[in-house]
Specification:
5 helices, alpha+beta, five-stranded mixed beta sheet, 193 residues
Length: 193
């Protein structure tokens, strides 16, 4: 069991570069349904790659950046350990909108954890496929068709959206996610990175 967890963590270890943040933000910003969140939220946390895997015992891990009023304020890591019925592995991007300063301060307090009832809305690429005697075709894209299932609203000052990058996992909660925040001025950069 330990070997499986180690393999899952190594497989899903995120590599965070500036391009990943820009690209991930582009995906979320391309959704007209999320525009009001970007326009009105006090801040948000972006995780370009979160890996999740498990077989009875599971875990999630990802690194991200926290934005305050549109500017990078610090770095954040996400961890989750879970026990229960779950199977598979999945990689996704996650964005957490922080409605006001109170929600922002709570999120960066290093004491914040989503409770068991927390849930996220999935933002899915629109996909169409057609097959027949005339041939086959497929297309995918982002836009209103792909995000019209978004439900508006904050829960305790936070709204969470996921964009699946790959994999299949039977376990859809975000409850139990813990966050560790490091302000930008305290963030130590490793030479050469």
């Amino acid at each position: 069991m330990r070997k499986l967890l180690l393999l899952l963590l190594i497989t899903f270890q995120p590599f965070s570069f500036a391009d990943n943040y820009d690209g991930t933000l582009d995906v979320f910003e391309s959704s007209p349904d999320l525009q009001s969140y970007f326009d009105n939220a006090y801040g948000y946390a972006v995780f370009p790659t979160v890996g999740r895997g498990g077989m009875v015992i599971g875990g999630s891990y990802g690194n991200g950046q926290v934005y305050e009023n549109g500017r990078v304020a610090g770095r954040v890591s996400l961890t989750k350990l879970s026990i229960g019925f779950q199977l598979g592995g999945q990689v996704f991007s996650e964005i957490i909108f922080l409605q006001d300063k109170r929600a922002f301060d709570e999120f960066i307090s290093n004491r914040f954890e989503f409770d068991a009832s927390a849930s996220a809305v999935a933002i899915v690429l629109g996909a169409q496929a057609q097959a027949g005697t005339a041939g086959s075709s497929a297309s995918a894209g982002v836009g209103p068709v792909s995000t019209n299932q978004v439900e508006y609203g904050y829960n305790k000052g936070m709204a969470v959206f996921l964009h699946t990058l790959g994999g299949l996992m039977y376990e859809a909660s975000i409850g139990g996610q813990k966050f560790k925040y490091t302000p930008l001025e305290k963030d130590v950069k490793t030479p050469g990175l």
